[in-house]
Amino acid sequence: MAEVRLQQVVKKYNNQTVVKGLDLVIPDGSFTVLVGPSGCGKSTTLRMIAGLEEITAGDLLIDGQRVNDLAPGKRDVAMVFQNYALYPTMNVFDNIAFGLLNRGFSKKDCKRMVEEIAEIVGLSSYLQRKPAELSGGQRQRVALARAMVKKPRVFLMDEPLSNLDAKLRNQMRVELTSLHKQLGTTFIYVTHDQVEAMTMGDQIVVMNEGEIMQKASPFELYQQP
Ligand code: ADP
Ligand code: ADP
């Protein structure tokens, strides 16, 4: 669990400023959704928090510590991508366990942790399968499990449901919401889908052209004319 704080965070690519001085507090344990049209800077913001993109100016704090210059692996955050990024030749167990490599856990501990997470996301009977032998929803669960097994302080998701059909997407929304309750971890979730934002987030940050237009609870947004 952790609070994430952005102070005047700027991102420039060449001469284009795509994130224009964001000030934002993401409370510990919140489910914060960044929503806005394609190209407004949501992914870039998420990637800066993950440490996958350098911050041009401003400060990024996690639990009060400035992490601008910390490598991704040292930030104790985990990211789930929209294209799953699973290893096709590894089975589900190894894909999930991959998140634990280089962390010094014994084989026995790894096994216990992978099995525990597999249980949570409903993959216990699929641990020996390869990604190609899974449905889209199951693959998405593997990607979630691989991030979760590291027990990160902050869980970052970039349109994780966009490759799923409508029915599965609805189901996964419910599952992710309950997963958030269960874990109590800070979730930061990027989507261009307003319905998704409204149904999942407890704090909704509306972005446009690299700026925050509005920050509210779903209830406050719903109340608006
Ligand atoms: P969103 O996630 O809201 O769709 P992005 O954060 O992906 O938006 O992109 C914001 C803007 O930054 C877009 O104009 C995009 O073209 C630009 N951009 C993103 N990544 C790069 C990059 N690596 N180099 C140059 N421009 C980029
Ligand atoms: P998303 O909107 O989900 O971020 P994109 O297709 O915009 O997906 O971006 C995919 C990848 O391409 C990202 O790594 C992003 O940084 C990079 N990218 C996006 N726009 C540009 C751009 N104008 N120039 C270079 N790289 C870009």
Report on the structure:
One of its GO terms (cellular component) is ATP-binding cassette (ABC) transporter complex, substrate-binding subunit-containing. It comes from Brevibacillus fulvus. Keywords: ATP-binding, Nucleotide-binding, Transport. The chain is built from seven helices and ten strands. The protein has 225 residues and is of the alpha/beta class. The protein has a six-stranded mixed beta sheet with strand order 6-7-8-3-9-10, sandwiched between helices. Strands 2-1-4-5 form a four-stranded antiparallel beta sheet, with helices on one face. Helix 3 packs across helix 4. 35% of the residues are buried. The model has no long low-confidence stretch (mean pLDDT 92). Bound molecules: adenosine-5'-diphosphate (ADP) (2 copies). One adenosine-5'-diphosphate is lined by residues 38, 43, 159. One adenosine-5'-diphosphate binds at residues 13, 18, 36, 38-44.
Give the helix/strand layout.
Layout: E1 4-13, E2 16-26, E3 31-35, H1 42-50, E4 57-62, E5 65-66, E6 77-80, H2 92-97, H3 107-121, H4 136-148, E7 154-158, H5 166-183, E8 186-191, H6 194-200, E9 203-208, E10 211-216, H7 218-223
Parallel strand pairs: 3-8, 3-9, 6-7, 7-8
Antiparallel strand pairs: 1-2, 1-4, 4-5, 9-10
Helix pairs in contact: 3-4
Bound molecules: adenosine-5'-diphosphate (ADP) (2 copies).
One adenosine-5'-diphosphate (ADP) binds at residues 38, 43, 159.
Structural descriptors:
alpha/beta; transport; 225 residues; six-stranded mixed β-sheet; binds adenosine-5'-diphosphate; Sn-glycerol 3-phosphate transport system ATP-binding protein; single chain; 7 helices; ATP-binding; nucleotide-binding; four-stranded antiparallel β-sheet
